[in-house]
Amino acid sequence: MSAGAKKRIMKEYGECMKDTPSGMKINFDEQNMTEWEILLDGPEQSIYSGGHFKLKMTFPTEYPFKPPVVSFKTKIYHPNVSNDDKGSMCLGMLRPDEWKPPNKVVSVLRLIQTLLIEPNADDAIEPSIANEYKENRKEFDKTAKDWVKRYAK
Amino acid sequence: MSRPSVLTHNYHSYPQPGFDSIVHTGLSYRPLPIRAPELSAGYNQQHTGHHGRISTVRMSGPAYMASDEELANLQKLSSEYQPEVTGPLVGERQSSSAIATEYANADPIYRVKTAALPSNYAYFRTCRGDGHCGWRAIAFTYFEALLRVADVNKLEDEEARLQSMHNLLNAAGFPEHVYIDFVDEAFGLLQKLSASLRAMDGAGPETLLQTFNDPSTAMAIITYLKLLASAWMQSNPNDFAPFLEFNQDLKSYCSMNIEAAQCEIDHLGIAALAEAVIKPAGFALEVLYLDRSPGEEINTYRYEPTGHDGLPLKNPQTLRLLYRPGHYDILYKAEDVAQPLQQAQPVPTQAPLHVALAGYADEFVPMSSNIPDVMTMIPGMYPTGIGQRWPSVSYDYNPNPAPQPQIAPVPTYAPAQTPATPVASSHQEYVTPVHASHVNHHNPPSHHTIQLEPPLVLPIHPPPPPPVTIDRGPQMTIERGGPFRPSMYELEPGFHSGQPHALPFQTSIFRNSHYNTAHFLNPDFQPEEWSPDSEYATGNRGRHKSASQ
Q1: Which residue out of B24, B50, B133, B442 is catalytically annotated?
Q2: Are B316 and B351 within one domain?
Q3: What is the span of the domain harbouring residue B52?
Q4: Which residues of A touch B181 (CB under 8 A)?
Q5: Distance separating alpha carbons of residues A4 and B185, to the nearest angstrom
Q6: For A56, phi and psi rounded to 5 degrees?
Q7: H/E element, B371
Q8: For testing the chain A interface, which of B219, B224, B230 should be mutated: the one with the most A CBs within 10 Å?
């Protein structure tokens, strides 16, 4: 990892500390600054409210010229989070072809929060969940809440 | 026996371990009956052999069909596939005859178009085709052109000008504390280059190449230029919005096609960069489009800088790119390359000039600056005051420093030359491809070789030389004395390069007169230079055509 990337990560961390989105906590290890642990409370107005989610944000060697990688360590029933052991979230600005080097980590955190409030079913990684979200919202809400109880307490 | 040990055992006894990885990718999402529901991350990785065994059984069945999920997965793998790109981010400069050779067996359009390339563009430099090559090529050549100007003040001016463009970046909404990292890398390079110019250590080109081969620094500089281009487009919407597709909004266009980390430069990007960075620096940008469009010449587009008066600048430094569908490389004319060397020499410009004439009069080398006087002092040599021409000859050459680097090997300056040697050696490759551009005018050895070899015996010398090449003709023959002995400097490849461009008289009268070496009535006629179509339209055309094919 280049000096420039480290400098940038430190800068981003400083900014996140100053302006942490509500309901978030960042665990930053200076020895391993390329892996952030993020503790996120399910936003009040969302079906995930009450849940506590653990996320990992990994900065690639080429950061900031490649996007950070976001993955949910806590299982979550969500069309934009892969339903496997990776729990990866990859859409919008996090996509390698849409990522812009000036993008800020704070905006990434906000994007995550927004997606919990309003999933983006048109850009889903889990088509079946997205389908359920669109077609059978009741069932979706039920499963999602159920998973919060089961995995995210 | 506990489950894990059973699985491990299976793995080891599995006859074709190489096979499991193939199957595994397809089946990793398939819930397997034996798999415990609470498998933790990484668990199934450890036991690939287990999956392998199950799937082998399935695959051996007659009606094996990939499920949609597997197909989707394969599709995903295939769309994520990126060919491995190799080579340096920016390569060493090399002879562009390599390009012609590369296309020698290609389809006729490419062959015709590339055949003439090496004689016009002597060198090229590769950029790695990793999706940033166009941006990288422009960024690299921009810094290289600054280095070629070889003026510390110019570098400082550029830094100040770029600094003033922060307003533009701010107006486009880029956070300063973020883009400043990219700016710092670019300015850092500018400062290194000016330090090298100040020290006259000739390390500039090497520094530049190294910087651009350092991935993170290079990306930072590229990103900086991308942001400048984007900010420029957004602040000049009238110039760019009309080119967007129906209803596309400029800001989102910039965000997707200019600022995005993985996007190659497009036409709008080039135009924006040319307007924002290249032209204001006083540089021209030339893009040669080598594609299969009809025609015999490579289509060229040129962005011309203008001065404060709105008129095009004369002889600007030119950044040249070669575009082949999907890829950009850097091109050079022979004279582009010659200049930085000359500038790097801590030698007054006048001195090497006379040394260059050493080819004609070896014995004058040591007293280079006295040549005019010495020449006139030789009795009977310049009865008509031709000796007075010496100064004017040198003035002819001054504006075009191209031939000067050839002086490099002069022992007097040996220490200063050392950094330049690698470049000088690359001239070597240049000899063959560019032979056609030799001009006998300034080329005593080659014209002797080609035309006068048989009568090289003395009788040919006493008669006064033909009226051609008044400046040089007489001296040359007299000094040479007998069968020619080429000077080592003349053998330097590129000794004659660039000189045709020095010809101050290119009027049609001159061109069609026998004073022109490209004219067949000229005693030193050089067939390679002659293009019959440009003068007499009859007679020789057919012959020439058949000869040239």
Answers
A1: B133
A2: no
A3: 3-80
A4: 4, 7-8, 11
A5: 9
A6: -125, 135
A7: helix B371-377
A8: B219
Element (H, E) at B271: helix B267-273
Q: Taking 60 as the threshold, does the pLDDT of residue B383 lie above it?
A: no
Among A9, A100, A105, A107, most B C-beta atoms within 10 A, so best to mutate, is: A100
> Is the ipTM of this structure higher than 0.85?
no
CA distance B288 to B281: 21
For B286, the token pair is 């030339």
User: Can you give the residue range of the structural domain that contains A76?
Assistant: 3-151
Q: Which residues fall within 8 angstroms of residue B374, CB to CB, at 6 or more apart? A: B364, B367
Verify whether the Cβ–Cβ distance A100 to B262 is below 8 Å: no
CATH of the domain at A145: 3.10.110.10
Helices (H) and strands (E) in chain B, counts: 28, 6
In the block, which residue shows the tokens 């006729």? B108
Nearest to A70 by CA among A84, A86, A83: A86
Q: What is the pLDDT of residues B418-428, one digit of tens each?
A: 444 444 444 44
* DSSP state, residue B324: E
Q: Which of A1-15, B32-46, B435-449, B498-512 has the lowest mean pLDDT?
A: B32-46
User: Domain for residue B440, yes or no?
Assistant: yes
Contact (CB<8Å) B223/A4: no
Q: Are residues B57 and B129 in the same domain?
A: no
Q: How does pLDDT run across B473-521, given as a tens digit for each residue? A: 344 444 444 566 666 676 666 555 544 444 555 677 777 777 777 777 7
Cα(A57)–Cα(B70) distance, integer angstroms: 28
Q: Among all residues of A, which ones are annotated catalytic?
A: 90
Domain co-membership, B101 together with B195: yes
CA distance B407 to B413: 9
CATH code of residue B246: 1.20.1300.20
Q: Say how many domains are in chain B.
A: 3
Taking each helix axis as running N to C, give the angle between helix A137-151 and helix A127-135, from 0 to 180 degrees, rounded to the nearest 10: 120
B178, B214, B215 member nearest A102 (Cβ): B178
Supply B315's token pair: 């002889």
Domain count, chain A: 1
Residues of B in Cβ contact (< 8 Å) with A101: 182, 219, 223, 259, 261
The rounded distance, in Å, linking the Cα atoms of B166 and B179 is: 9
